[in-house]
Amino acid sequence: MDLFLDYTHKQFVSSTIKVSGSKSESNRLLILQQFYPNLRLKNVSDSDDSVHLTHALKSTQKIVDIGHAGTAMRFLTAYFAVKEGRNTVLTGSERMQNRPIKVLVDALRMLGADIAYQDKEGYPPLEIKGKKIDQQKVSIQGNVSSQYISALVLIAPSLEKGLQIKLLEETTSKPYLEMTLDLLYQLGIETSWKENVITILPQPSIGDKTITVESDWSSASYFYSLVALSEVGTTLTLTSYKKVSLQGDSCLASIYKKFGVETHFEDNSILLTKTTQNAKRNTLNLKNAPDIAQTIVVTCYGLGIACDLTGLHTLKIKETDRLVALQNELQKFGAEIEITDNSLHLKPSEILHKNCKVKTYNDHRMAMAFAPLALKVPFTIEDADVVTKSYIRFWEDLDSLFK
Description:
alpha/beta; UDP-n-acetylglucosamine1-carboxyvinyl-transferase, Chain; 2 domains; 21 strands; 30% helix
């Protein structure tokens, strides 16, 4: 579905948006719930990724297809590897079959897992024969994707001897790994992270526990961008958020202060208010929060300011090569933008071409990151339904803010 967006002549209505639970927290907890059935979850993400993961965990079929859900692919690879007696073929979309998984498979094989590639070496689909894992130590690269490490951490307490994970090189997206360890801590599982070694002790069972998932900060980023591109005095409330968050993308609150967006925490909600714009140039290292890069770049372009972002190497192996996609689509509006394998550099510009067609590349974040630009110029989002991957009600929630 193509969607024409134009908010240039509409009035912004101060409102409250209820954002679904964090996809990152939900997906980790859904895996842990398989090992600890007396864990109850509230405010679980209604995203496609979490729905795919839930269906996969309930499936009794040999072939499990998780579509575009990258997190599910990583977590399920580890989960099915320790699911004794279960033989599974884990596959996904065409893009998923071109996203690397070798680093995780190598680590699981080191532990004794039985995993074979069905097609290309290093990529899904995978044939996984679940078995008892009795090895206790493993080494894995830390600089590729934290999801590989989190996948190991999530299965670790179910192993008879627990697990000791040695991280090779600096860890990418460290807050996401800290999130995984914190969720284990909330369940009473003993963990430690000293220098480059993570240790998780075995935990065969836990007491009854209920966890309410915090709303998704990545989803909040699009509303931060919307407020940043709005007139001074614009306000918007988002629920349900915590001042002390497990999510790395909560750094939005400090980043968007430079763009004149103040964040006020109150009663598990955040009130966003547009004050004045401070930044003339935005220089950030986003190695710990790469998922908000697209939003920040579009915000900067809409405000006509320069942008220099580094720490973006993981964006090349997401739903699409997000750096190339950003460059391609922003250039349609008139942007001057340069990319490397790890960085993006946007020049300040007041040019904003109308009626462009933004391609989404099967990437939910491309659609949502560009949406706030409709405050400045009318344009069309191609394949707008792609947002359901992480935020099913995004277009309805966005529309509700204008009259």
